Amino acid sequence: MKVNKTLRLDSADNVAVALTDLQPGELVSPPKAPTQGAHPEAESAASAIMLEIREQIPMMHKVAVTAISQGDTITKFGQVIGVAAVDILPGSHVHYHNCVLEGLPANFGSSTDAVMAKVPTTPANQRFFRGFRRANGRVGTRNFIGILTSVNCSATVAKQIAAAFSHPAVLQDYPNVDGVIALTHESGCGMRAAGEGFDALTRTLEGYVTHPNFGGVLMVGLGCETMQVQGFLSRAGLQDSATFSSFNIQEVGGTRAAIEKGVERVKTLLTAVNAQSRQQCPLAELTLAVQCGGSDGFSGITANPALGVAADLLVQHGGNVIYSETPEIFGAEHLLKARAVNADVAAKLSERIDWWQAYTRANGFELNNNPSPGNKAGGLSTILEKSLGAQAKGGTSPLTDVLLYAEQRKTRGLVFMDSPGYDPVSVTGQVASGANIIGFTTGRGSAFGFKPVPCFKLSSNTRVYDFMKDDIDINCGTIIDGEQTLTEVGAEIFEAIIAIASGEQTKSETLGYGDSEFCPWKIGAVV
Amino acid sequence: MKVNKTLRLDSADNVAVALTDLQPGELVSPPKAPTQGAHPEAESAASAIMLEIREQIPMMHKVAVTAISQGDTITKFGQVIGVAAVDILPGSHVHYHNCVLEGLPANFGSSTDAVMAKVPTTPANQRFFRGFRRANGRVGTRNFIGILTSVNCSATVAKQIAAAFSHPAVLQDYPNVDGVIALTHESGCGMRAAGEGFDALTRTLEGYVTHPNFGGVLMVGLGCETMQVQGFLSRAGLQDSATFSSFNIQEVGGTRAAIEKGVERVKTLLTAVNAQSRQQCPLAELTLAVQCGGSDGFSGITANPALGVAADLLVQHGGNVIYSETPEIFGAEHLLKARAVNADVAAKLSERIDWWQAYTRANGFELNNNPSPGNKAGGLSTILEKSLGAQAKGGTSPLTDVLLYAEQRKTRGLVFMDSPGYDPVSVTGQVASGANIIGFTTGRGSAFGFKPVPCFKLSSNTRVYDFMKDDIDINCGTIIDGEQTLTEVGAEIFEAIIAIASGEQTKSETLGYGDSEFCPWKIGAVV
Ligand SMILES: [Ca+2]
Ligand SMILES: [Ca+2]
Ligand SMILES: [Ca+2]
Ligand SMILES: [Ca+2]
Ligand SMILES: [Ca+2]
User: Fold this and answer.
1) Which residues of B touch A360 (CB under 8 A)?
2) What per-residue confidence (pLDDT) applies to A72?
3) Which regions in chain A score pLDDT beneath 70?
4) The architecture CATH gives domain A6-108
5) Which residues are CB-contacts of B480 (< 8 A; sequence separation ≥ 6)?
6) Which Pfam families does the UniProt entry name for this protein (chains A, B) (predicted)?
7) Which residues 189-218 in chain A show a CB within 8 A of chain B?
8) Among the residues of A237-395, which ranges form H helices?
9) Minimum distance, in Å, between the CA of residue A462 and any CA atom of chain B
């Protein structure tokens, strides 16, 4: 069904991506650039020109669609990925032999003026979703009861409390309750009682205990752990209420007594949580976490930019986006910094990059700021190009803040939250920061879902979609298949976000994913 | 019921522990030393003398039971804990003001000759337990089917496969099968594909896949993770057999297909695993992991030494013991080194200590090699005394090897396996190393159990036993209550080990503990 042999990602691009191996002498028609409709005339003009391929170009590699003079910038995704080291004729292979970073203007990114011009105002055509508005004003997209733990030692009790409510019949009188779930973790003791690791776990637990997707929360501790429940609650300013309570196993007389007490507490919570129901809320109450797992060569040109289009639409409608995975922006962090709304935000990003450099060095290695041999074989010429493919999923909005892992989001629009790239650890932080919907791109078919927040999955190619249809919500491979444009898929994702936030079940929810994916980032030594 | 006011831990000791606050002028009768019956006449002589208390001595602190001259060694647990800084009269408070490390003979530990003399030969009165002897000759104490994972991404599938067998009715035709369990972990990707962290996870998974407490194993991967299932299997020399199989979710068509395939595989395994049954096996096939969690001031004088007595009995009967928790021996590692059977073993222990010093320094802190202010308030005068209380649980056998975390045990008798002190992480390594029974001491009432290996819990005091009776198997508080001697409790634990290894259920098994406690040590950065 592949009708196009090349894909131009933005109407401003002077290169296109080969969707198949191209041979010298072949005549190809560069496809209509699937941009957000910025330059419709340019698109039709470009699509009228037939392009003669001048040399062998492997699939996923770049071909020049216009003449590029030595010293000119080379543009993909509508953004600069390098400079022409020589004059490049249309139809030529563009790769690291002729696309380099040397000679790049020092300040080629957006200016602060340009960034500020893009800070969205609430649109005239306001959109809404149906969410659970909590007493504190925050809005949930689901209505779970959560059993959280301070330490691994209370995991078994937490799971057994939740298990008492796992049969659908038990909840049939509580139609507004999405379920009772235990989110347990492996840490909480055998750690220092201060410092980065302790603070990160504290922020994570606070983000979950107060998450709007929980109508009610029970927190179970052991009693002698490093992460003391009482200390945690007083630091977080939390106390027992109609929707929150806590206890320690050692204080109630052991396992059996703790399970009984927990089951009773949850029974009490059920009535309060069931009394909450969905109501109309503006998209400003949505916070989309974007995440990538198991990427392939197509991720950077289909699923990631399509999710980016949806992310931009959400921000334009007053909503919020959390972009993360610091190791993936390494070597091209200035692209993101150039979109910072002020120098403080840019400086915060620099601090995080410095932290990662020290952290990886202390752990005996360095993060790469060059494309790997595998990246090069896949057609990625510069670290800018690689990073832009990853960064595409966050969209192009101004960067309004940089957060520590699991730190509460405070600004509107697009924010960056520091985290590893590892999916469960990164998403755990994003949800703690306030994400109430998750968009997940994959080229390999990730097995991922997350409670209490719905997660929809986007495939970067049609093969993985067809093979794992039960797991993937939306196929972005249609962009390379020539069936849909990036703009169309982005709009489809945007509508899916509204539907899912309003209660439509994602594939991973149907499959029961989400209990095992809560993995707080453990920083520092286990002792 | 407290009939004794002081407790002398060994007949060779010149100090006793106050079991209550003692006042000047009080006359107390030092109890019969609950040693392993080494010096019965000395005991009766000592117990005949009434001791006059000379000054205020807080509970858990030490009182001199004989005159100790300046420069003489001070002995508790039958071992040197310090040197008298001044002449000390019977009935005096012995603490860091008069019990110091300065002046300690450099080589006060056992000589190699003394160590080798204790290397046990199989006793005449051979004892047996009833275990599952596997095709490769190893012996299990339980007969589980395990669903293991390479990465967090396959955790949900693994748990859903196991859940299909969670109802007792499903297994009623397979009476020899103890259950179908999913042991999942948070790692396997977002990590470097080489180095200490990768090697530790590899050793851990290998130790579980081949553990004799599993009659059959299914390993489920995702497909694109760092810890590739195929690579792991070829390094471990494993391949599909009647009792082992593996597959990747991405290769079978996604979550639903993977769960169906897994359930079918387990159904096949059930018949093979049910065909295995218990038979008589010598105690040489038992490997006891000793572990301490939530210790209190009594742990070092009741539960730990009582478990040590049982550990020594097991070694004397040809069995094996794995002692761990490296941070706890810090500052007194020479006590363990002095028991090494040769210089190589002692050198291996030094290497591990050096590693921890570098590891903690890289993580911004140092392990303490002095008793903490809390330790001192609790009556512990020197790091030797603190460490001896912790080391007591391993018994006094010669040290035949030092293992890396999760490294397979190769020698007989007592070995030390490097690990953090954090219970789930440490025990996961001990089980991977080959432990098929776990003895766990606690002063606070730990909520702990472990699958597929039975874990019995020992309380250090009667209060916690009475309050958490559902969780604690044996109360060692009877030693301070004067109801049992250390020797008697140690013998009781030894008999319990044989009964539990033969199938008797522990409290934690009855309560359903053990699925959430599998926590491989994560060394190095998450990326
Ligand atoms: Ca978890
Ligand atoms: Ca990721
Ligand atoms: Ca579609
Ligand atoms: Ca685990
Ligand atoms: Ca421990």
Assistant:
1) 525, 527
2) 96
3) 1-3, 30-49, 106-111, 121-124
4) Roll (2.30)
5) B2, B4, B7, B19, B298, B301, B302, B461, B462
6) GD_AH_C, GD_AH_second, SAF
7) 189-192, 195
8) 249-252, 255-274, 303-316, 326-329, 333-337, 343-362, 373-377, 383-391
9) 13
Contacts of A167 in chain B (CB under 8 A): none
**Mean pLDDT computed over every residue of chain B:** 92
| B149 φ/ψ angles, rounded to the nearest 5 degrees | -130, 155
Structure tokens at A367: 């993060």
In the numeric block, the tokens 């009482």 are attached to A230
- Is residue B482's pLDDT more than 90? no
| Residue A190 to residue B409: CA distance in whole angstroms | 25
pLDDT tens per residue, range B220-250: 999 999 999 999 999 999 999 999 999 999 9
The ipTM estimated for the assembled molecules is 0.93
Q: Give me B413's structure tokens.
A: 């008798």
Ligand nearest to the CA of A438: 2
Q: Between B155, B254, B447, which is nearest A249 by CB?
A: B447
Cα B143 to Cα B127, B170, B273, B455, B497: the distances in Å are 22, 16, 7, 15, 17
- CATH number of the structural domain A144-275: 3.40.1400
Which tokens in the block code for residue A277? 């129901």
Touching check for B159 and chain A: CB below 8 Å?
A: yes
Sign of the dihedral defined by the CA atoms of residues B70, B76, B78, B81, in that order: negative
Dihedral angle at the C-alpha atoms of A50, A53, A58, A60, nearest 10 degrees?
-30
Token pair for residue B301?
Answer: 């004088």
User: B295 C-alpha vs ligand 5 centroid, how far in Å?
Assistant: 9
Domain borders along chain B are 6-108, 144-275, 283-510
Residues of A in contact with B511 (CB under 8 A): 156, 255-256
Counting ligands in written order, which one lies closest to the CA of residue A427?
2
A153 touches chain B (CB under 8 A): yes
CB contact under 8 A, B526 and A365: no
In DSSP notation, B158-211 reads HHHHHHTT-SGGGGTT-TT--EEEEE--S-SSSS-SSSHHHHHHHHHHHHHHT-
Q: Can you tell me the distance from the alpha carbon of B506 to that of B239, in angstroms, rounded to the nearest whole number? A: 34
- A382 φ, ψ to 5°? -130, 165
Cα–Cα distances in angstroms (integers) from residue B103 to residues A197, B82, B383, in the given order: 41, 9, 15
Tell me which H or E stretch contains B265.
helix B255-274
> In sequence order, what are the residues at sequence separation of 6 or more whose Cβ sits closer than 8 angstroms to the Cβ of residue A26?
A5, A52, A53
**CA-based angle A355:A199:A358, to the nearest 5?**
15
Nearest-5° angle of CA A427, CA A429, CA A433?
Answer: 115
For B104-143, the pLDDT digits (tens) are 876 665 567 777 777 776 666 789 999 999 999 999 999 9
Give the closest of B257, B444, B522 to A522, CB-based: B522
B184, B192, B224: best to mutate for the A interface, most A CBs within 10 A: B224
Interface of B with A in 291-310 (CB under 8 A): 293-294
Neighbour count for residue A27 (Cβ, 10 Å): 10
For A340, which DSSP code? B
Cβ-nearest to A254 among B471, B516, B526: B471
Q: Measured between beta carbons, which residues in chain B are less than 8 angstroms from residue A254?
A: 445, 447, 467-471
Contact A153 B191 (CB under 8 A): no
Q: Number of helices and strands (H, E) in chain A?
A: 18, 23
